[in-house]
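Before drawing any conclusions, I needed to go through one protein's amino acid sequence and its C-alpha cells, quoted below without any editing.
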Amino acid sequence: MMDKTFDPAAVEARIAAEWEEAQAFRAGRPDRAGAEPYSIMIPPPNVTGSLHMGHALNNTLQDVLARFERLRGKDVLWQPGTDHAGIATQMVVERRLMEQQQPDRRSLGRPEFVRRVWEWKAESGGTIVNQLKRLGASCDWSRERFTMDEGLSKAVLKVFVDLHAQGLIYRDKRLVNWDPKFQTAISDLEVQQVEVKGHLWHFAYPVVDEAGTETGETITVATTRPETMLGDTAVAVHPEDERYRALVGKRLRLPLVGRLIPIVADEYSDPEKGTGAVKITPAHDFNDFEVGRRHGLAQINILDEEARISLDGNADFLDGTSPEPEALALHGLDRFEARAKVVALMEERGRLVTIEPNTHAVPHGDRSGVVIEPYLTDQWYVNVKPLAERALQAVRDGRTRFVPETYEKTYFQWLENIEPWCISRQLWWGHQIPAWYDADGNCFVASSEEEALAQAAAKHGRPVTLRRDEDVLDTWFSSGLWPFSTLGWPEQTPELARYYPTSALVTGFDIIFFWVARMMMLGLHALDEVPFRTIYIHALVRDEKGAKMSKSKGNVVDPLDLVDRYGADALRFTLAAMAAQGRDIKLSVQRVEGYRNFATKLWNAARFAEMNGCRLDPAFAPGSVTQTLNAWALGEAARAVAEVTGAIEAYRFNDAANAAYRFVWNVFCDWYLELAKPVLQGEDGPAKEETRRTIAFIIDQICVLLHPFMPFLTEELWATKAREAGLTRPLLALAAWPDLGGLAKPEAEAEIGWVVDLVSEIRSARSETNVPAGAQIPLVLVAPGEAVRERLSRWGDTVRRLGRIASIETVETSPRNAVQLIVRGEVAALPLEGVVDLAAEVARLKKEDAKLDGEIGKIDAKLGNADFLARAPEEVVEEQRERRDAAIARREKVRDALTRLQG
C-alpha cells in the first residue's frame, strides 16, 4: 500500500544512493556503446562556493537536458567539476590562518601556503558538489574534475607554451585593475562599480612660454582624484574647442611638481563637460592611457602596490625637475590621505578654483571591498584578436548557435572590440606561469624547468641559474580549456573523440565575455573545432518583487532551505516552469509551495489508482483500447509528450514544464480520473478492466514525462507501481522516453473534448455572473446537431454532475435573458432569470470594464514617460508592466462575460 503522503526528506537520499549504486549516470555504459553521444559541461563552480539560486537554476536546466537525452537512449556525459578560483580560495585560506592565529601567507612561504590550500580543498572544497547531488544533478560523478588536477594542468601548460611560441602570449607594461589589498591584478568581472558621493576639484594649471616662464594665463581642469595629478603628463582639449585652439602645443607647469607638460588636442576631451580641459594621467586612468599612447606621453606611476604614494627615487616622477618639498613629503602616504594633502597644498598656493559635490561610480574589488586602482605594471597578455576572429566566424557560420539568438549581439559586440587579455595574477594559488628568467632578465617559456634550463644553456653556451616567474594565471585561462581538458587533451583520448565538440552549454549571460567567448577562442585554436554546438543563455533569478538578490538587501533565498521545506522536485519544477527565454525569474516561495502541491496531487492520483485496482500490465496495448474516454486520454498523453519533447528540444523549458503540468493536473487528474469514476465504481467488465489498465499505463508515462523535472518523485512512483504489479525493471533514470505516436483519435477527442469544453464553459459562466456555488441551474442546447444529441445521451449525467445542472433541454431558438455559451461552434445557454439579477450583472461588469480601462490608461502613461523609466528601480517598472498585463487579462474576461450576458 502506498504511503499516504510523499515525503521528500525520507526518499531523496535513498533514491540518490540507488542511482549511484547502479552507476546510472555513467557515460560510456556498455549498453549504450552504439548510442549517439550527448555531452554537456558543467560551468565549474568555485571550489569555495556553496549552492545559490543561480547555481540551482543553471544546474536544474542542465539536468533536464541530461535526463531527457538519457531517456531518449543517448550516451550522456554530463561532466562535473570545480574551479580552483584563485583569489577567492586564497582569501578563504588566508582568513582561516588569521582566525586560527597562525602565521600569515608570507611568513609561511609559498610551498607551505600552497600545501595548506590543498589541505583546505580536501577538507571542505567539495561542499557545493554534495549540494548539487542534493538537487538531483545527474552528472557522471566518477569523472569529477578540478581545474588544478594534474591532467588539466598539463593542458594549461601546453596551451600557454604553444600560444607563446606563436607570438600570441607576450609580456607588456599596461594598465590593469589593481587590488591594493590583495596586491594583484584582477579581471573586469571582479570589479564592482559603486555609486559614491564625492567631490569634483577644479585646479588652475599655469601656462608657460617657451622659456618655461609663467605667462599669467591658466587652464582649469577638474578631477575626482587630486592625488593622481602628481603623475600628470598633459592636459587635453578638444581640437575644435575655440577657447583653447591657440594654446594647443604650448606647455603648462604642473603645480607642486614643477614638471612641464604639453597641451594636446584630443577628441577624448568633451567641450560640453566641465571646463572642456582634462588632465591626462596615463599611468592611473584607462582612458588617459589611450590618450597617452596616441600622443606619445610619458607614463608616470606615482603609487606602490599598496596604493601609497611612491616618489623617492622615482626617476620618472622627478624627470629632471625639482618638486616642492611639501610634494616630496607626500611619499609613503595612503592615497586618500595624500588626496586631502594635495587639495590643501593647492588651496594654499591659490590653485584651487572651486569644489563641487559629485556623485560618481567608483570601482571596488568584489571580494576585498577596497577601491580598485588603474595601475601600470608588467603583466602577461594574450593577443586575442586573431582568436576572436575565428570565434566570431564560427557563430556567423552557424557552427555554434545562441539560444535566445539575441545574445549573439552581446557576443559579437565584445569580440569585435576585444582588447588584449591580461592573464597574470600576483597570487600564489593557481597555475604558476611557466616562464623562467636569467640574471639579465632574459625570459624562457617552457613546459618544465628542465626545458627552460636547456634553452638558457643553449643561449649562453653554459648552464645558468634561472628564477621562475612568481605570478599565476587568471582562472579564466584554465576554465577556458574546460570542454576539452576534462576529456584528457592534449592526449588524444577516446573520450575526446566521442564527446567533443559538446552538444550544449547552459550558462548565464554575465559570463558570455569572460568564459563563453574564451572557450570558443581556445577550443577553436587548440582543436580546430567549436567546443559546443548550442549555447543556451538563461536569465537571473530575482526575488518575488523582481529585485536582484543580494546579501545587503537581505533578500537572498537559499535553495537548500527550499529543498528542506518542499523537496528538491518542487524547487526544480518551479525554476524550470519559470525559465522563459530572455526573462528573469521572479522567485516566490508560494510558487515552490504550489509545485509541492502539484507533486502531492500526482501522488494522490497514484494512490487513487492503487485503491481502484489500476495495475500495470506489460501486455497492455494502448493502440487497441475500445472505450472512447480511454482513447481520448491516451491521445491527450501523446499530445503532451509531443509538446514536452518539442519544447525541451527548443530550450523552451517553461513551455515543457507547463505542458507537462497541464496534462497531469488538468487533463489526467481533473478530467480523466473524474470522468472515469463512474466506470471504476461500476460493475466489473471489459470497460472497467481497460480503464484500470489505461490509468496505470498513463501514470507510468507521466513518470517518464516528468522525470527530467522531478526525478525523485517520479523514480519513487516508478518503482512503487512496478512493485504493485509484481514487475522487476531498471531504474526510471535509464528507462525509455515515451513513444505514443499514432494514439491520437480525432473522434474520441471530438466527443470527450466537447464534454470538457461544455462543462468548462458552464463553470466559467457561473463564476463570472456570480451564480451561487450550490445553485442548480438549467442548461439548454440551441438547435443541436445529431452528433451533439448523441454525445448528450451518453454524457448527460456527467454534465449535470460536474456543471451542477438541474435539467438539460434542447430548443430551436436561444431563450431571452440567458447567458450564451459557444462550444465548438454549437450554441448553448444558461437561463439565469430568477437565479441572478442579469441587469445588475451587466451594470456591474460595465462598471468594472470602465475601471480597468482607466487603470490600464494610467499605467500606459507611466510606462510611456521616459523620466519614470529612467528613474524608477527596475523592479518597480516590471511591477507596473505586470499590473498592466493582469488588468488587460481581467478586462478580456469581463468583456467575455458581457458578451455572454448580452448575447
About this structure: The longest strand covers residues 191-208. The first helix runs from residue 8 to 21. The two ends are 53 Å apart (CA to CA). The CA atoms of residues 678 and 798 lie 9 Å apart.
